[in-house]
Design goal:
Layout lengths: L4 H4 L4 H9 L7 E10 L4 E9 L4 H17 L6 E5 L4 E4 L3 E4 L2 E5 L2 H17 L8 E11 L4 E9 L3 E2 L4 E10 L5 E8 L7 E8 L1 H8 L10 H9 L6 E15 L2 E3 L4 H7 L8 E15 L3 E3 L1 E8 L3
Parallel strand pairs: 1-7, 8-16, 9-17
Antiparallel strand pairs: 1-2, 3-6, 3-7, 4-5, 4-7, 8-10, 10-11, 12-13, 12-17, 13-14, 13-15
Helix pairs in contact: 3-4
């Protein structure tokens, strides 16, 4: 049986404090609690403290997670790791950073251990304010089978709609070593939707982010907005439904300014106005999600015709 890291002494607070005390520093300590449940069995809890160092802490978190998993389970090959709801990095004065997600396939272990460490690195090395990480809580569910599924096809119950209509989308997914399943979701065409074509994109979070488009990377303007953007990241165990229209807008200072008049758009796009600004040629009028039991891959596009009322 593996020994909890808190009993090994590798990251004990007294030892770390002694090391930093020799160079005249008093480190702030971050308590870490990790709960691991393997294949539906009883959960085991591991805990340790680590120094809140911008470079050292992410490495310790990454190494600690990998060490725990390697001592308890197989980490090579296709597996499934879920960071369950309640997996958070707690920040004083800002709120919790939610990092729950599902990772499946040959790189599941790499993502499940690397992404929390990378998010911690972003927080500790942000450009706006000294972060105060008060704790890290990770709830890991492990399974030997890769819980992945591929989107096979997508359909809707109607293709000509009017503003305010209800539309049902059906998504056929094929799980790994499983039979086809149909996921359904009803959504409403927004009442303010103008007549014309409405592109409906249905798929996983990564593909949908590319479908939304954007001509440049946008930097958040402060720590609170960085946390907000992290919490809004799309999850792997969701099928997302996006209704997208062509749009003349920008994202400036991390905020979207949609449907700008030509005069305002021309002013913002002058060379002297360039900076934390990106042109947005598409805008999502609809965004819905369907919870799945798998890490979903694939995307399909359906065109709806919006008629005038």
């Amino acid at each position: 049986m593996a020994t909890p890291l808190s009993e090994i002494g590798a990251f004990r607070q007294d030892r770390v404090s002694g090391i930093f005390g020799k160079i005249g520093a008093t480190p702030r300590m971050i308590p870490v609690r990790i709960q691991l449940r393997s294949r539906g069995g009883p959960a085991e809890t591991f805990s340790f403290d680590m120094a809140s160092d911008p470079l050292l802490a992410p490495l310790i978190l990454y190494s600690g997670l990998n060490g725990i998993l390697a001592s308890k389970e197989r980490i090579a090959g296709s597996v499934t790791l879920r960071l369950a709801e309640g997996s958070v990095i707690k920040l004083d004065g800002v709120g919790d950073v939610e990092i729950d997600n599902l990772y499946a396939g040959p790189q599941a272990t790499y993502y499940a251990t690397g992404i929390p460490a990378y998010i911690l690195y972003l927080l500790l090395n942000n450009d706006w304010a000294p972060p105060k990480v008060s704790g890290i809580n990770l709830i890991l569910d492990y399974d030997l089978e890769p819980h992945v599924a591929r989107i096979q096809r997508v359909g809707v119950d109607r293709y000509r709609v009017r503003p305010g209509d209800k539309v049902e989308v059906s998504v056929v997914v094929v799980p790994y070593r499983g039979a086809e399943q149909v996921l359904k979701r009803e959504f409403e065409i927004p009442p303010e939707t103008p007549p014309g074509r409405l592109q409906l994109f249905v798929g996983d979070g990564s593909n949908l982010s590319r479908a939304e488009g954007g001509d440049a990377d946008i930097m958040p303007r402060d720590l609170a907005q960085l946390v907000k953007l992290i919490n809004q990241l799309r999850r792997n165990d969701r099928v997302y439904v996006l209704g997208i229209r062509e749009d003349a807008g920008v994202v400036m200072g991390g905020e979207r300014l949609p449907s700008l008049p030509p005069s305002a758009l021309s002013i913002l796009l002058r060379p002297k106005s360039q900076g934390n600004l990106a042109v947005v040629q598409r805008r999502a009028l609809i965004e819905e999600e369907i919870l799945a039991e798998y890490s979903v891959e694939g995307m399909a596009r359906v065109q709806l015709e919006v008629e005038a009322r």
